């Protein structure tokens, strides 16, 4: 039984929390500015943002993403503070329910050489500017790669995500980004679990073989039910011979 | 062991939802219609006077025999789709029908009477050119098949090859036709384009080349298109450049004789390519010396070749179609000529003289909502007085077959356009007149007490009148024998039934013909043919206004888009009557990228349709002031997405108040690695009753119900079986956030996806295990709901939990859809169309990633089925018992007024309509429900209470006195 339970735990972890485990390992590269990261094989790309009153995107640098290439790509972020003008603008944009957009260039993370990682075009995402303000610039940015290591999408959410119209008085709250950054590769979808199923079946039959309790015949275990049934039948139909119990078996 | 048995019993009791129908229910709630497709070849079975068969071979690779009295199918053989099953030729002789299939791959002989296969032979490879029956000494015993490089002759009786011969110089000469005049020779005609014709004469006995001639013909490039053989083996060709007929005696001459049309006194249309039509009644005899010459789109001439001279027998001007038919020794020519705008007349003429036969006029009424006549198939027969009678089968552009008998009685019509349904919708029927009257009373604005009272009285009066009429009808019908009482469904007495089980099926076919079909009986209530539909059109059908807004008529809009140019047109119509709507749709000069229905309505309750053109400008339909104002108000919350699968680009846009758009997100999937094959959202009319699932420990696991979620399926470009994969991306359509990204390794398409509620089910081919597999993804928010009142994509910071499980499926599938009910309380089933023609209703319960590997008390509490890797197909899950649906291409589901019932239409070559009850009929009393018992028990109880109350009172009173 203990073995079975262990199996169960493994499966549940496999199936239920595959995403969560991924998240955990992806988050190891959060918080920017670590000088060690730059020395490893990697490169940096700009992370740009735009928030304009007329909603025409004008991207400016927000920081730089340091991407470590290879089999297990990781990412870290070094970003600037918001200037006073930007803070004011962000609040204004938030007041008219404008958008706060970010973009990163498309890159190929598995590239060996510097020239290969660059690709044409950008990946963009947005949140409402008011959510950015009300969350005091705490956002979660996730970079998604495909199987072969191409960056295919970026997403940004703020925590908390809602716009409740609360005023942010303190200018200091809008100075420093509090960013959680992660990079996610696709999860391997499970195939049909034939091996485990067969193993389970085998175990069950083995267990039955060992346990004499289980091997008791049907009659041995349910004789009282059958007897009761037979008596009941006899009472209801006195013409019926007491062999009526035999009918129960079929 | 016993535990297992008990468990199984328990499982059976809990999970076995029985779908099988009882014998007496067959055909009660379901119907099937079988089609054959657009007719390419047709032959009347003329071996017996009383034969009722029409043999048809169609462009859908179907060979069938129709009953010429009723139009029903005697038998039907459905071959493979695509070029492999393409029917190249149909030859008919006595009891045998010879078919050449798949570009000359197979030669088959069918028995016409019973539709059984006589024999089948595989032919040597080579592209097919022509086939012909070969007669000798008055009997037909062989069939000759001409391919690019050789000719082979087979016995009709068993298909064995009599001889096969290579064609001389087949690299340079393009052999196109084979001909036999019944004299022991087989002639093969080939052409070197713009140079000469080559005629090779083979001996029928041993395939020896008897003669080989080349004849100068620099203007000729295609023999079947411009030449026919008439009379004693005379090749007659029409030359459109010099406007002349050229004759060549195949047996004697080596040079063509040119006869200018002008010398016959004929003027030809300069733009028209004249064509010829001859007739060979029997392969063992020579063709007739009379032939038709078509000189213009509406002009035919019956000509005769007489000792090298061409004689005009009759000039048919105007004439739409002409055809020959033979019965016994007599051959007649049938000519269809336009009479007026709505009718054509067909007349018979004697083929030898061109004289009109008396009393042979037949009127063909042209459907104003149909297409023009395209082909005429004539069945001639000898009457008792030895005169010729005939019936015709007219084939029109809209793929309709109409069978007409003299003097114009339509015996049957077949709408073969329905063999290729592209998309469909089900629309509620309107209320009855009285119901509508009452509704209208509430709909109108109040204008004074007195008039309101009057209105109320008048509507009450109308209701009374209707009720009396109904009673009278009941009384009247009761007197008639039951067989005569038949509820004829017509467009006038259509009304919604009590539970809204009867609906109007609006079907759009690839030929551009629209149909309105009653879902209860399958009767076609209206049809409308849209001409000038491009051949590669994509259709999208949308219901803009339902029937719920009386007195405004319901309104459907069909978007027809040319796939190459992107240019689109709108057809707006009333789905109940099929009539074009009064509303003029906007002209769309720009290519259209995307269309979306908004939940916004204008003042006339029509939903707003937004069309995005290639300049990313948005136009609205209807575009009244009211709509534009509403759009301006809500613009900041209207998002849409575009998919460019050629570049792997998914981009999201937001509407601006000036109806321009701005891009807000972009996801790019590199096309070098994978290509997008599907983007599937959820159905907008879907309801989810339960926000969560109750777990074994009584806590609730909340579903992630994002209405904007898109399931994007990709396939790898690398098709190697070790490296190929299928990618599944779940993207929020508003924010572009990738919610989940998974790859199914060692898998390949074709992929079928169903996306609904909080789950995505997809099916793929596993290259590793070489089998079909199902996978299910379910999304859960977790034990707490982030914001239980409203879902907003802009405010859901936490990613959902993703659960996934896969299963083996023992069959390949054609299409997949989920059931849909009114309120979403009923459990869901997945309807799977199998290539075998079955439609399987698989409970979603079996596709549940929470199915446990090890059974625990909690999972049992939750009614979870223990995980088993294989999904077993149970025969009682087939909802269409023996009513197989050939080549099922799509399944449409619609909710009915009953929560338990879902209406299902499966379409492909056939159309099948039925109802399914995924959780059984929990809201319907059974047919054999004992009303008497329940009411008598109720009454008895009622009286018992009364009596006991009275007795108690008396007792109390007595006690008080004591």
From TrEMBL, chain A:
<keyword id="KW-0732">Signal</keyword>
<keyword id="KW-0472">Membrane</keyword>
<keyword id="KW-0256">Endoplasmic reticulum</keyword>
<dbReference type="GO" id="GO:0072546">
    <property type="term" value="C:EMC complex"/>
</dbReference>
<dbReference type="Pfam" id="PF21203">
    <property type="entry name" value="ECM10"/>
</dbReference>
<protein>
    <recommendedName>
        <fullName>ER membrane protein complex subunit 10</fullName>
    </recommendedName>
</protein>
<feature type="signal peptide">
    <location>
        <begin position="1"/>
        <end position="26"/>
    </location>
</feature>
<keyword id="KW-1133">Transmembrane helix</keyword>
<comment type="similarity">
    <text>Belongs to the EMC10 family.</text>
</comment>
<comment type="subunit">
    <text>Component of the ER membrane protein complex (EMC).</text>
</comment>
<keyword id="KW-0812">Transmembrane</keyword>
């Amino acid at each position: 039984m203990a073995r079975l339970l262990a199996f169960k735990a493994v499966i549940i972890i496999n199936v239920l929390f595959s995403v969560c485990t991924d998240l955990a390992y992806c988050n190891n590269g959060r918080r920017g500015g670590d000088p060690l990261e730059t020395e490893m094989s990697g490169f940096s790309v700009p992370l740009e943002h735009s928030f304009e009153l007329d909603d025409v995107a004008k991207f400016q640098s927000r920081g730089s993403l340091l991407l470590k290439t290879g089999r297990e790509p990781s990412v870290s972020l070094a970003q600037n503070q918001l200037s006073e003008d930007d803070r004011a603008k962000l609040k204004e944009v938030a007041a008219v329910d404008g958008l706060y957009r970010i973009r990163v260039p498309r890159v190929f993370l598995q590239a060996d050489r510097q020239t290969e990682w660059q690709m044409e075009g950008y990946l963009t995402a947005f949140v409402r500017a008011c959510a950015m303000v009300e969350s005091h610039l705490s956002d979660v940015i996730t970079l998604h790669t495909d199987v072969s290591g191409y960056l295919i999408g970026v997403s940004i959410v703020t925590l908390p995500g809602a716009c409740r119209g609360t005023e942010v008085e303190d200018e200091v709250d809008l100075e420093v980004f509090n960013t959680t950054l992660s990079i996610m590769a696709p999860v391997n979808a499970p195939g049909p679990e034939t091996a485990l199923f067969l193993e389970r079946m085998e175990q069950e039959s083995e267990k039955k073989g060992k346990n004499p309790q289980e091997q008791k015949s049907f009659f041995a275990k349910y004789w009282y039910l059958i007897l009761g049934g037979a008596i009941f039948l006899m009472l209801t139909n006195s013409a019926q011979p007491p062999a009526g119990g035999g009918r129960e078996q079929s | 062991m016993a535990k297992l048995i008990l468990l199984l019993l328990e499982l059976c009791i809990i999970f076995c939802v029985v779908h099988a129908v009882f014998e007496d229910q067959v055909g009660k709630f379901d119907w099937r219609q079988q089609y054959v497709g657009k007719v390419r070849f047709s032959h009347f079975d003329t071996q017996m006077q009383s034969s009722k068969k029409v043999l048809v071979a169609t462009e859908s690779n179907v060979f069938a025999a129709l009953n010429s009295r009723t139009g029903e199918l005697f038998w039907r053989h459905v071959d493979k789709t695509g070029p492999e099953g393409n029917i190249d030729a149909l030859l008919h002789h006595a009891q045998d029908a010879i078919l050449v299939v798949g570009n000359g791959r197979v030669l088959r002989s069918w028995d016409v009477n019973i539709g059984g296969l006589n024999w089948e032979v595989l032919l040597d490879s080579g592209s097919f050119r022509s086939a012909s029956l070969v007669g000798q000494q008055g009997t037909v015993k062989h069939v000759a098949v001409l391919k690019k490089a050789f000719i082979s002759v087979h016995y009709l009786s068993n298909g064995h090859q009599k001889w096969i011969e290579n064609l001389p110089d087949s690299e340079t000469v393009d052999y196109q036709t084979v001909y036999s005049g019944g004299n022991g020779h087989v002639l093969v005609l080939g052409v070197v384009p713009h140079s000469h014709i080559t005629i090779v004469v083979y001996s029928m006995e041993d395939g020896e080349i008897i003669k080989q001639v080349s004849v100068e013909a620099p203007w000729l490039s295609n023999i079947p298109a411009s030449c026919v053989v008439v009379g004693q083996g005379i090749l007659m060709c029409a030359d459109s450049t010099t406007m002349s007929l050229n004759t060549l005696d195949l047996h004697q001459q080596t040079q063509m004789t040119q006869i200018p049309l002008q010398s016959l006194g004929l003027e030809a249309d300069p733009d028209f390519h004249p064509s010829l039509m001859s007739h060979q009644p029997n392969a063992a005899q020579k063709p007739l010396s009379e032939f038709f010459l078509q000189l213009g789109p509406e002009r035919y001439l019956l000509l005769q070749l007489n000792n090298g001279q061409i004689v005009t027998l009759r000039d048919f001007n105007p004439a739409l179609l002409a055809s020959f038919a033979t019965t016994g020794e007599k051959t007649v020519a049938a000519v269809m000529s336009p009479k007026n705008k709505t009718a054509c007349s067909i007349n018979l003429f004697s083929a030898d003289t061109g004289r009109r036969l008396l009393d042979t006029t037949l009127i063909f009424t042209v459907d104003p909502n149909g297409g023009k006549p395209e082909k005429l198939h004539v069945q001639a027969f000898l009457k008792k007085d030895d005169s010729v009678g005939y019936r015709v089968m007219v084939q029109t552009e809209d793929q309709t077959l109409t069978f007409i008998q003299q003097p114009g009685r339509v015996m049957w019509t077949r709408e073969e356009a329905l063999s290729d349904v592209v998309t469909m919708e089900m629309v509620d029927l309107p209320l009855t007149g009285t119901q509508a009257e009452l509704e209208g009373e509430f709909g109108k604005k109040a204008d004074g007490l007195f008039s309101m009272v009057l209105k109320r009285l008048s509507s009450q009066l109308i209701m009374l009148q209707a009720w009396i009429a109904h009673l009278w009808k009941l009384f009247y019908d009761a007197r008639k024998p039951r067989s005569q009482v038949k509820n004829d469904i017509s467009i006038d007495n259509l009304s919604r039934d009590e539970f809204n089980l009867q609906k109007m099926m609006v079907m759009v076919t690839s030929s551009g013909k629209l149909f309105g079909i009653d879902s209860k009986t399958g009767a076609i209530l209206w049809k409308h043919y849209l001409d000038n539909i491009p051949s590669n059109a994509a259709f999208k059908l949308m219901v803009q206004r339902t029937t719920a807004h009386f007195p405004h008529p319901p309104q459907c809009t069909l978007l027809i888009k040319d796939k190459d140019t992107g240019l689109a047109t709108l057809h707006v119509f009333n789905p109940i009557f099929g009539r074009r709507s009064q509303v003029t749709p906007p002209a769309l000069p720009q290519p259209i990228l995307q269309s979306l229905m908004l939940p916004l309505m204008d003042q006339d309750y029509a939903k707003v349709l937004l069309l995005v053109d290639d300049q990313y400008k948005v136009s609205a339909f209807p575009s009244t002031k009211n709509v534009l104002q509403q759009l301006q108000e809500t613009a900041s919350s209207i998002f849409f997405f575009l998919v460019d699968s050629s570049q792997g680009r998914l981009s999201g846009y937001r509407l601006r108040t000036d109806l321009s758009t701005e891009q807000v997100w972009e996801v790019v999937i590199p096309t070098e690695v994978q290509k997008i094959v599907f983007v599937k959202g959820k159905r907008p009319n879907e309801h989810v009753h339960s926000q969560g699932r109750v777990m074994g420990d009584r806590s609730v696991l909340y579903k992630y119900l994002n209405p904007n979620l898109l399931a994007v399926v990709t396939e790898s470009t690398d098709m190697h079986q070790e490296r190929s994969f299928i990618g599944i991306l779940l993207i929020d359509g508003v924010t572009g956030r990738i919610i989940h990204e998974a790859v199914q390794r060692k898998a390949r398409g074709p992929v079928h996806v169903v996306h609904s509620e909080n789950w995505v089910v997809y099916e793929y081919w596993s290259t590793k295990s070489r089998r079909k597999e199902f996978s299910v993804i379910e999304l859960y928010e977790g034990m707490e709901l982030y914001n239980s009142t409203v879902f907003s994509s802009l405010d859901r910071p936490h990613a959902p939990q993703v659960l996934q499980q896969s299963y083996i499926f023992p069959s390949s599938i054609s299409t997949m859809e989920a059931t849909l009910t009114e309120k979403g309380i009923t459990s869901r089933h997945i309807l799977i169309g199998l290539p075998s023609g079955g439609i399987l209703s698989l409970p979603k319960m079996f596709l549940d990633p929470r199915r446990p590997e090890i059974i625990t008390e909690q999972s049992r509490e939750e009614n979870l089925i223990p995980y088993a890797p294989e999904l077993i197909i149970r025969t009682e899950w087939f909802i269409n018992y023996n009513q197989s649906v050939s080549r099922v291409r799509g399944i449409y589901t619609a909710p009915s007024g009953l929560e338990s019932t879902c209406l299902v239409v499966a379409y492909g070559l056939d159309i099948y309509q039925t109802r399914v009850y995924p959780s059984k009929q929990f809201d319907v009393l059974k047919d054999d429900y004992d009303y008497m018992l329940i009411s008598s028990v109720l009454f008895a109880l009622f009286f018992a209470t009364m009596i006991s109350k009275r007795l108690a009172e008396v007792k109390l009173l007595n006690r008080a006195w004591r």
